Amino acid sequence: MKPTPLEQIIVAMIREDGPIPLDRYMALCLGHPVHGYYMSRDPFGPEGDFITAPEISQIFGELIGIWCAAAFQALGAPDEFHLIELGPGRGTLMSDMLRASRVMPGFRDGVRIHLVETSPALRKLQAARLGQTITWHDSLATLPDGPSIVIANEFFDALPIRQFESRNGQWMERRIGLGADDRLVIGLSAQHLDRPPGTDGDILESAPLRDDIARELGSRLAASPGVALVIDYGHAASALGDTLQAVRRHKFCSILDRPGEADLTSHVDFESLGNALRQGGALPHGPITQRQFLLSMGLEARAALLTQKAKLPERNVIGRAVERLAGENQMGNLFKVLAATSPGLPTPYPFGSP
Ligand SMILES: C[S@@+](CC[C@H](N)C(=O)[O-])C[C@H]1O[C@@H](n2cnc3c(N)ncnc32)[C@H](O)[C@@H]1O
After folding, report:
1. What is the pLDDT of residues 243-253, one digit of tens each?
2. 180 alpha carbon – ligand 1 mean position (Å)
3. Which UniProt keywords are listed (predicted)?
4. Is 122 close to ligand 1, i.e. is its CB under 6 Å away?
5. Pocket test for ligand 1, best of 32, 125, 155 (most atoms within 8 A of CB)
6. Which end of the chain is more exposed for a tag (fewer CB within 10 A), N or C?
7. 267: helix, coil or strand?
């Protein structure tokens, strides 16, 4: 098969400068201004490559909206506050959150919506979906000061990572280079790491951009009152292992297949994310599983209410969605939820509950 346009660019880049680390490769595959995966397409849903929780059921966003309403109260119901979403996809989560949180007096009048989104294609979908005043940002750097509630669902898993492999008593970095026929291959090059090597074949992942953004979020919460909620798939405690994956049309493929046409993600290391938030000056809470979070926030009661109002085929859809979101062998345990608050704010529900 003919190489993708992005593959041709990457091959030329490697020919010129040598093998590139995985985070550079991922950043190009996902964010190249013309050919990056997110830049020109809508990847969600049955016609796309994957589906996320807000696209599975409106209940997901509604329960997060209720969480936001409680956070707004904990912030003292400010006259004006920023509701910030990182990586908002189609805008579905924001739309469902706003519908649910507006029942809280003062929320609708005080809310200012900010979306941190790099994809022009998705910005268009978000504008169409939300149809109200929105400020977009390329990064957290331009977000205004002031009280804030920050939500990030499946944002951190899309940020580039590096991988190191233990070989013969030393860490080697995995890099993308060229094979004999100019096809992309994964190779290793020596790399000094400040930690003892593991057993041969051990994989260590690091996510410098993810940690930088979490630190930046932490310093934002240290400087102005606010809370954040991060939902993503990943592990509660740091661990070794290769979690980088590529998905195209709902199927796993090699990370080297069709660069720019497959989604690349990795598991979020929530221990590392919590540490980075703390380094920035915020207080992390959790993580708890998505199952614990959604059940505590009233998933079953909300599903029962919607089911009562629905006709038969729709009832089955609701039941399947609940199972998908919270089932122990589905997203329920794989996905984790971490909160962070400015110092001095109370631990948000349900993070302090036994
Ligand atoms: C997997 S999607 C999640 C979308 C949405 N939160 C949901 O749950 O449906 C990742 C989102 O993050 C955005 N994104 C990826 N990398 C980004 C970056 N470095 N800065 C800002 N947004 C980014 C993508 O364009 C997309 O909107």
Report:
1. 999 999 889 99
2. 35
3. Methyltransferase, Transferase
4. yes
5. 155
6. C
7. coil
**pLDDT for 312:** 79
Is there an atom of ligand 1 within 6 Å of 49 CB? no
Residue 156 makes CB contacts below 8 A (sequence gap 6+) with 207, 210, 213, 214, 230, 232, 234, 268, 273
153 lines ligand 1 (CB under 6 A): yes
Which atom of ligand 1 is the closest one to the Cα of 50? Answer: 1
Q: Which residue has the higher pLDDT, 48 or 126?
A: 126
pLDDT score of 46 more than 80: no
Ligand 1 mutation target, pool 118, 217, 331, most atoms within 8 A of CB:
118
Asked if residue 151 has its Cβ within 6 Å of ligand 1, the reply is no
What's the CA-to-centroid distance between 155 and ligand 1, angstroms? 5
Taking alpha carbons only, the member of 48, 37, 25 closest to residue 118 is: 37
Of all protein residues, the one whose alpha carbon is nearest to atom 24 of ligand 1 is: 87
Rounded Cα gap, residues 194 and 348, in angstroms? 36
CATH superfamily, with its number, for domain 5-160+209-238+262-341: Vaccinia Virus protein VP39 (3.40.50.150)
Which tens digit of pLDDT belongs to each residue from 112-156? 999 999 999 999 999 999 988 999 999 999 999 999 999 999 999
Compute the radius of gyration of the chain from its Cα atoms. Answer: 21
Domain map of the chain by residue range? 5-160+209-238+262-341
- From ligand 1's centre to the CA of 136, what distance in Å? 13
